[in-house]
Amino acid sequence: MESQKATQGGSGQCHMASDETLMTVFYLKIRQAATPITKTNLERNLPMKMTTEEAFIKVLQRHGIEHAFGIIGSAFMPISDYFPKAGITFWDVAHECNGGYMADGFTRSTGKMAMVIAQNGPGITNFVTCVKTAYWNHTPMLLVTPQAANKTIGQGGFQEVEQMAAFKDMVAYQEEVRDPTRVAEVLNRVITKARRMSAPAQINIPRDLWTQVVDIELPAIVEFELPSGGTDALAAAAELLSNAKFPVILNGAGVVLGAAIPASQALAERLDAPVCCNYQHNDAFPGSHPLFAGPLGYNGSKAGMELIQQADVVLALGTRLNPFSTLPGYNLDYWPKDAKLIQVDINPDRIGLTKSVSVGIVGDAKRVAEQLLEQLADHAGSAGRAERRNLIASKKSAWAESLAAMDHEDDDPGTTWNERVRQRQPEHMSPRKAWRAIMVALPKEAIISSDIGNNCAIGNAYPTFEAGRKYLAPGLFGPCGYGFPTIVGAKIGNPGTPVVGFAGDGAFGISMNEMTAIGREEWPGFTMVIFRNYQWGAEKRNSTLWYDDNFVGTELDLQVSYADIAKACGVKGVTARTMAELTEVLNTAIKAQMEQGETTFIEVILNQELGDPFRRDAMKTPVPVAGIDKADMRPQ
Asked: How far apart are CA 545 and CA 417, in angstroms?
């Protein structure tokens, strides 16, 4: 799925991107109450006298928004005062950005929408990174931005900034409340846009619009039936798949968000087609299924890469085919350039943007997959069926054996960093050994989060899942500091499910201030694994390959112990140095999480081996021309 952009212009007119044309294929319906209710003025949507904050809260209740994340501020205290009475839990975080990541983790793991809110000005600007992260994760999110008062705005007053401009490229839709009588109308529309676009949407409200008594008619909730694809496109795609000799399905985020895994599984079984998953979407197909071929992209499944390399038809289901997801891996440039490509995405603007397509289908992944299955010819999948089954099994077996034997990271020709590390730290655990130890203890039903960084990226090849909404990776905006707060949000939304977060020590340091918030009694217990190698690994690998081991800004403080900091914050902190220790402490931590509600931070001491670089496609060895000399520096 893909977000579409819209903003509310200064004239009050709403400017929509080209996705507005999709509205003609949506079926409009009014959501009915789940149970009979007394037909008061409120239920009849007749105008009622109420305060602006009461109207705001009532709209939140109608949409079932029960969780808000942020830091308390005077600009929204008129509504936060009602949170307990309204059934809204306010999770007061240590930093607003982490609150946004928590909301992202909550929604991605539950499918339910949450709200982020903070003080106008610096509190709101702290949401920029997390909101853009949610945008590229296709996460519906309500961003509430109290604004400096209309009475003084433009005078450069206290905590004043152009908040609409700040989020113009961060959200899919934004609108400002211009009159107190329109609070409910605007909020209802913003929430609806966030849901329809599967992305963050912003309501900007000047703080002097609160505590006003007005006549307000609470708007009805309007929902849209998702498109199922065009008749001609579906027929053309079904014909290509029916006649394919080696069809491959590539599942993306839209399969997870649209609950399309069973539909894609039925289609794959009918065709005996291997199913690959997009980068960071390992949960888009059941990992135990014989047709599951694993994730593509950075540190993905070599079996999946070798199988899609042979495809004559690729069905890209619910994916925008972002360029990073199909980069070469393991020295394989595996994308089948001569294959016919069928791309299914709910946003027409993304179809054909990164790859040339044979058939583009604008529609919901689940509905399209179901219709394709119905339209397949009787002979679909017959060509080479037995051979394809055998090849899938053999490729998966060979990759599993190879992965199990991978203990260490290779050096590129002409570099020796990893070899030197092993000689210097022979007693230290390698990242791959750590991941194997983790997989022994990790429950199959667990929800996990990951972060940006070398050691988390190495782990991309290991976890598989039997259901969607289980793998919370940072996504293509790529923020460091994502793994820790996101798993907290997932636990809030899934109190009966074991959750484990993962982060490297550099990335963890960005969000570690949340350790001061999560130890309070009302916060749920969770488990957090921190890979400790005292370096920014991805950047250090770049330095070994292209900058002759010139390590600038890559070293972390050897004196810091995250396990000790955890203890100082009132939660449990432990250290693991061997595979056996790691499996044992992770088992213990997960058991304590589920039985006692205990939070544990596990600091895993690793050697400094470095995995494959993120961006071979974007890096090259610099060639000095004019030369740089320290003697040329002049005093100020």
From this structure: 9
